[in-house]
Design brief:
25% strand; seven-stranded mixed β-sheet; single chain; 15 strands; alpha/beta
Amino acid sequence: MKAIVFDQFGDPADVLRVRDVPVPEPERGQVRVRMLASPINPSDLLSVRGQYGRRPALPATPGFEGVGVVDAAGPGLLGRWRLGRRVAVLNSQGGNWQEQVIVSARQVVPIAGDVSDEQAATFFVNPATAFIMTRLVLKVASDAWVLQTAAGSALGRMVIRLGKHFGFRTLNVVRRPEQAEELLQAGGDAVICTKTESIEKRVEELTGGAGVPFALDAVGGDTGSAIVRCLGNRGRLLIYGTLAEEPLSVHPRILIVGQKRIEGFWLSEWARQQRILKMLRLFRQIQGLLAKGILATEIGATFALDDIQAAVRQASLPGHRGKVLLRIASA
């Protein structure tokens, strides 16, 4: 079978290769999934570069999420129940960018027939992160402000739609002026363009100097540092990304005055700490919000496995619209 493999860390367009590898066989508690599609997420590219939170053993195959059909199961009741089902594949170790993959039977989620392959492939990483951070970790109250960086990303747009659905307000930070009007049209309550205005001054104007109670940052560096300075009393910031690859620079007094908090959020770490029933409820909630379009993902260009270099170049372009997808097989 075909698999995308890298033997060393580096630029994905340089180190990723298509190889023929043996078809794997599932063991107890495992299933084999014939993959249909898998997105190219920033976390996938960071993993290939060796910059993700956990480095895989080399050689490795990327791909943290995707959709496929269970075509074999090892011993165990849950795996047999999944046979023949189309499932979202939540692969915390990576490995979905190949024609068939082995995962624990607990890492596949049956998907309703009215959900497209494209939406099923992007079922978890962005939708779950957006939902968990705003509804389960921060527990954002109705009418409260959420200040977020990288607001033009797929996840940022989901936070905007969650705000409209659940009644909280979003203050959205972008780099390019053309994104500002676009996000206002998409339902954002306010937008700050860092090219033309100061994050801190704009937040001060909108909140009357009180600051924001909640913030989400995927950038770090100067932008993330400005977000910290915008927190109000007992304000909380969740950091879930490091796009700038630069540290925060914040005077400790900013956190001391008003008892503000900075916390890290990593989806796979959070998920490992949850009970199975809580995760099942979460999957149902995500599917419900997906059906309403609230957690739907905009799909951009689609590539075959053989076109992996072109695919990762497209996914790495700043400001590209829509999630880049690898189409691995047909249903």
